[in-house]
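Annotators were shown the component list below and the corresponding predicted structure, then asked to write short factual statements about the assembly.
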Amino acid sequence: MMGNLLEHMGIDRDRIHFSWISSAEATKFVDVVREISEKVRALGPNKKFVKDYTK
Amino acid sequence: MVTFKLNGKQVQGEDGQYIIHVAEKYGVEIPTLCHHKALEPAGMCRICTVELFDGRRTKFVTACNYPIWEGMEVKTDTDAVHQGRKLIVEMLYARCPEVPLLQKLAKQYKIKAPRFKKEDDTCILCGLCVRMCEKMGNAAISFAGRGTEMRIDTPFGIQSDVCMACGACASVCPTGHITLAKIKEEFTKTHPSLIPSEYEMGLQGRKPVYVPYAQAVPNTPAIDRSVCMHFKTGGCKVCAEVCQMDAIDHMMKDEVVDIDAGAVVLSPGFEPFDPSKFDNYGYASHPNVMTAMEFERILSASGPTGGHLTRMSDHKEPKKVAWFQCVGSRDQNRCDNKYCSSVCCMYALKEAVIAKEHAGDDLECAIFYMDMRTHGKDFERYYNRAKDQGIRFERSRVHTVVPQDVTGDLKITYTNEAGKNINETFDMIVLSVGLEISPEIIDMAKKLGIELTDGNFAKTSSFAPVETNRKGVFVAGAFQGPKDIPQSVVDSSAAAGEAGAMLATVRNTLTRVPEEIPETNIVGERPRIGVFVCKCGTNIAGVVNVPEVRDYAADLPYVEYCSDNLYSCSQDTQETMTQIIKANKLNRIVVAACTPKTHEPLFQETLINAGLNKYLFEMTNIRNHASWVHKDAPELATQKAKDLVRMAVSKVALMEPLDEAELQVKPVAMVIGGGISGMVSAKNLAEQGYEVHLIEKDKVLGGQANNLYQTFQDENIAQKLGSLIKDVQENDRVNIHMETTLENVDGFVGNFTSELKKDESSTTLAHGVAVIATGAHGYTPDEYCYGKDDRVITSLDLDKKFMEKDTVLPSLQTAVFIQCVGSREPERPYCSRVCCTHSIDNALELKTLNPDMNVFILYRDIRTYGEREYKYQQAREAGVIFIRYSVDQKPMVEVSDTKLLITVTDHVLGVPVQIDADLLTLATAIVPNKDEKLANFFKVPLNEDGFFVERHAKLGPSEFATDGVFLCGLAHYPKPIDEAIAHGQAAASRAVTLLAKETVHTSGNVAKIDPMKCSACGVCVSICPYSAPAFETQGRFEGKAGINPVLCKGCGLCVASCRSGAIHLKGFDTNQILAQIFALNEEAV
Amino acid sequence: MTENNIKIVAFLCNWCSYGAADLAGVSRMQYPADVRAIRIPCTGRLSPKFILSALREGCDAVWVSG
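Structure shown to annotators:
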């Protein structure tokens, strides 16, 4: 639902990520960080919907 | 009181004071080179000259020795004064042009080059040394010669018998004219040396008045009478003069204090083995050969090199470091320590890994060892990781170290596994010294009548591992046997528990109530935030630029105070923080350090001590989440740390003081598992006066111990187990539930409700604490033809044969044991800890039954830690043959009608050896039950292998992070009977610390409903997994929802689901989280 | 914000992912420094408002982990 809302707002689905990691799964944690980081780097900075502080 | 004018201002001083004292009190700076507050002034350097107007005329006097009088007028800042001082500096500079202090002064007075003839002296004849020497009650040096010939010297300029080389003269010399080296060369016949700092392992000196180390408790200085000059000459007492609190009393005598005690716990610890007696390692003669304890100091951020890895001889960064294992352990030829010290393999691994972390990946680390003994929890994984990181392992005992004089490098000679002699050069050698009981402790044991083992450890039985032979005297830690931190912590809890059981009837008869610090009311105050940034030694400061983060935080809104600490969690820092909070009237605190999961309570305690509500606090994790994980990007890590601090600051500003509810603790314990550790735990809890329910799923008590024959100390297990079962069964306070399973658990610390199921019928049990002792089981192998032939059995099968007195056993001709079956394998990368000792024990038993039997043990590393090592020796002496195999060349087993054919490739010979055996025993792994259901009931974690994860690997081995739930026995990690018993006692002991409190406080982080906004829709009531919200049935807000703070876990589910926005989660409220989000963007603040 | 300097906000459950993040630190695993963690008691605490606010503050991505 959240995803749909964001898409509606023109925000890429890849900008929001849900995961479930138990406290013993440090490896998974790191893998997910890497994955998200890579995806988002590919997308580039978020320009939509951002409050503009220069105004 | 004398009143006079100083630079035009009215000032006051005491009668008899000199001008300089009063000036100092009023913050007026007067330079001086010859003044020392402990010494009588002499007016030697004259640089302190000031202008004095006595009512009629002006004159120049020296401030250090001119007594003040009523009505005088002093000026320290006139042109004339400055001109005078400049001239003095110029003359001194000409005399001593090379002295840094004078160069600095000359620069200050804008003197480029002195107009006088330059000399090459370094002494300014201030006389501080002479006066100090007199003060020391000694007078070994004095002024000698006249006029231009005047100098500081000993009588007749010859080396003095009188000088005791105390170094006081050097300590006050302002120019560096007198140094310790010079004292040695010119002044004294005594040999001067630094007083070695015990804490720094002698790598640094310390003073006669000293605090043993920064975190010492109590954190007060002590005087070392053996080196203090006062106790030698009767002079000095400088410390007493400067102490403003008058706290120093040199007349104090040692006192004998009598304490009435019902029980005694001996935990005197060990001493690291002193390797100076081994001349082949050159420890005594070469600074680059050091002990592991010294190396620890080199790696420590608070150590002599600040954590920078350098070697002692030339402060060069080493490129190649070697560790020698078993120095002073497993050695009866050169020292008497036959035992294995248990901890050295692991600490050497740790030091090598950390050394690489400090010095960079290109540091070459090599560990020379006999057997790698990583038998502790998660240790084998660490070993594997060390191998992956390129640490080299050489199975060899090095025989010679030859120092290379010019370079300071060390050439070693050793024989490698292939039998080849190899010469190799290292920059540094670390000796992994063993653990030893000191002669004083052995004396103490004799005085107390405590029986010792061959290794001088306190003798204990496997079934009472913390009891000495003397009733009421318990033992914990390395005095019981060489052991690491978690095992020592288990022991100490166990000893406390056993002593507690003995003294249960007199509990709380000698207690005192602590002083309660009243909470400051801060409601309505503007936030005054204090930010403490922790360096965590080099753990944080090594990557994150801590001063930068600190200065950044200082500029954030509402921040009133900011500082950094070396270790924020140390006792002394806690006290300083308390004072800072009070002095600066701070009302919100941020600590940027490690993880709140372990350290939040500690800092909250500090807040309470400072009179603040503990919820006015936010901790942010710049170690686990920044410095440790972004090692290669210090700038990004620093930026991240700043962001995290900014977010924390903006959240903490919105924090409010919260209340905690007080709850009664139900004085009943539930122990799950009727094995040996569970029973011991139940027994101890009952003896300490609590009702216990022992739950066992099987028909019999005793668990795995039922399958075991004898302990490594040759004690019959069945016998001892029988009496333990009897004790438990006969204890009125223990209720045993056989063939019972746990179906559900509700509630929380102090108030659990569990559903027990027996034969289809369910009962509920209310209890305050729970102990998980669910054990583990033996691995059923599918390798080595197990199951295909009756002659291939497991260790437990063999034990059974011993117990049944199997008549076949004495007639066997050849018996073989294979170690590490199912352990130390990719699917089970841990060591099962007990199997080496078990197989050796059984091998010896076979040899007893039939001394002519051929017994082989095929192993990877023999891990008979501690005094179990004696068994290994015995086995070799008895003719048991040990053949080492490598994991990639495992033994092969073939079954023939008459024999078992076992082929193993001997590592030393490199050729396959074939053994025709009658019996093959597989030393199988201990496999955890991986009880996810139970883990879920109590919300406790399991590790990757399926063992339960304790609160803290080192400091909390017998409890869980979940309050009120405790852990012991094999469910934690494989362990032999003595350790399982100590663990059971420890878990009980930890549980009693909670039960004895009688009440617990719930968290203040709970949800609260604003009834004015509540629309009574019921979503929160239906959604809450803990049934905390309910509709009010009476009062003004009847029909609206209300939350029971005791049941509320603070998860916030209701808060997010409330469509009216009526629910607030204290401590994680919407505005607080939004504040963090808004602070994400730096420009927004 | 530049290509090389992205910012991801992570809402981490105190009991699960926050623990995993701590453990990653203890194990000295290295990962990109883009993530800023906000510790929450449980992912159930999260409301869409937080995600939207984070994006509005210029975050390049939001990560919710239980």
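Statements collected:
1. Chain A has a mean pLDDT of 78.
2. The beta strands of chain A are 16-19.
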